[in-house]
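Dear colleagues,

As part of the handover before I leave the project, I'm documenting each prediction I ran so the next person doesn't have to rerun anything. This entry is a single chain, and its sequence is reproduced below.
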Amino acid sequence: MAPGHNCAIWMGNLNNDGEDEIVVFIDQKQTDVRVFRQIANSWRAAGLMSSDDMPAATDFSHLESVQPAAPEWKDLLVGGKRFRLHLHHP
């Protein structure tokens, strides 16, 4: 993160494993959100999250009311390989 940028952090269980993940919103204009999970007593990058509304500014004051939401579309597992739908938005 560059000097002079703000960030906000939310901690919660995103994958129903009973363990909290850390979600880092870097700057209100950032187009992605970083997710970390604890593996072997250290925090490791798990991936990125994004919103259909990006790059609109994110109002971090709403983080106290964050709730994980089930995906609108389910993934498919084919021979152990996961296929995830990435929607095209007009």
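The radius of gyration is 15 Å. Strands lie at 7-12, 21-26, 33-39, 42-49, 76-78, 81-83.

All the best with the project,
I.
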